[in-house]
Amino acid sequence: MTGFLLAIEGGDGAGKATTAAEIVALAREAGRSATLLSFPRYADTIGGHVLGDYLAGRLPHAASPRAAAVLYALDRFESAAAIATAAAGHELVVFDRYIASNMAYQAAQVPAGEAAGLMDWIARLEVTQFGLPRPDLSIYLDTPAEVARDLIRRKRQRSYTDATFDAYEADQALQQRVRANYAAMVAGGDALIGRWATLPTISNGALRPPRDIAAAALALVER
Ligand SMILES: Nc1ncnc2c1ncn2[C@@H]1O[C@H](COP(=O)(O)OP(=O)(O)O)[C@@H](O)[C@H]1O
Ligand SMILES: Cc1cn([C@H]2C[C@H](O)[C@@H](COP(=O)(O)OP(=O)(O)O)O2)c(=O)[nH]c1=O
């Protein structure tokens, strides 16, 4: 069995973790075998452990975007066996963040003219050098910035920081550049990191229930 690899992507507080878990639950109810992998894997890899310190501001030096990208990529490289096992044993593997998160977030921290080049560099690092599988589909959860900020406040306690907003979440201008980088990937189609679809999480000005969002995501997978 080689499972369908579905990446759930989007900004902080877009509802990725909630949606990803709901997709797995819904797929299982429909009789499909499905499993979830969330990146970074803070507790499971050396890369993830260092990233926890990095996001909580506990590293003595700031990491350059390229250095940070290598750490996130390392977390996935160390997870290659876990990804392969998940894909071998399930019809559907859902990633809560994957390679495109690295592209969107690290390219948001270089001058605009360098963003496309860095996104391309990260895709080649992870896919070509590290041999990580491209997702079959990435779904961009489109959640308005004000709503996402509100949802971050509601998040449960995280393992690596006591702060309400981590270093990335606190920076609104950064979040805007992240959105623009995702928009560029969605518009660019499957050139770098496979197929894309956009899924709005708001309907008539209100957040859709997680079940509805997950059902819409599964419909995209079926298509
Ligand atoms: N569709 C939704 N409706 C209501 N609350 C939601 C929805 N999606 C997420 N939430 C809540 O918002 C918060 C952040 O969601 P989460 O899935 O952790 O976002 P992300 O993984 O994108 O950062 C959580 O407390 C979650 O319960
Ligand atoms: C997976 C991944 C995340 N990131 C960023 C996005 C987030 O701002 C941050 C933390 O990931 P996130 O999934 O938001 O973790 P948590 O819900 O525990 O806060 O890391 C990257 O820059 N590259 C990556 O490859």
UniProtKB/TrEMBL annotation:
<keyword id="KW-0418">Kinase</keyword>
<protein>
    <recommendedName>
        <fullName>Thymidylate kinase</fullName>
        <ecNumber>2.7.4.9</ecNumber>
    </recommendedName>
</protein>
<dbReference type="InterPro" id="IPR027417">
    <property type="entry name" value="P-loop_NTPase"/>
</dbReference>
<keyword id="KW-0067">ATP-binding</keyword>
<dbReference type="InterPro" id="IPR039430">
    <property type="entry name" value="Thymidylate_kin-like_dom"/>
</dbReference>
<feature type="domain" description="Thymidylate kinase-like">
    <location>
        <begin position="8"/>
        <end position="187"/>
    </location>
</feature>
<dbReference type="Pfam" id="PF02223">
    <property type="entry name" value="Thymidylate_kin"/>
</dbReference>
<dbReference type="InterPro" id="IPR018094">
    <property type="entry name" value="Thymidylate_kinase"/>
</dbReference>
<dbReference type="GO" id="GO:0005524">
    <property type="term" value="F:ATP binding"/>
</dbReference>
<dbReference type="GO" id="GO:0004798">
    <property type="term" value="F:dTMP kinase activity"/>
</dbReference>
<keyword id="KW-0545">Nucleotide biosynthesis</keyword>
<dbReference type="GO" id="GO:0006227">
    <property type="term" value="P:dUDP biosynthetic process"/>
</dbReference>
<dbReference type="GO" id="GO:0006235">
    <property type="term" value="P:dTTP biosynthetic process"/>
</dbReference>
<keyword id="KW-0547">Nucleotide-binding</keyword>
<keyword id="KW-0808">Transferase</keyword>
<dbReference type="GO" id="GO:0006233">
    <property type="term" value="P:dTDP biosynthetic process"/>
</dbReference>
<comment type="function">
    <text>Phosphorylation of dTMP to form dTDP in both de novo and salvage pathways of dTTP synthesis.</text>
</comment>
<comment type="similarity">
    <text>Belongs to the thymidylate kinase family.</text>
</comment>
<dbReference type="GO" id="GO:0005829">
    <property type="term" value="C:cytosol"/>
</dbReference>
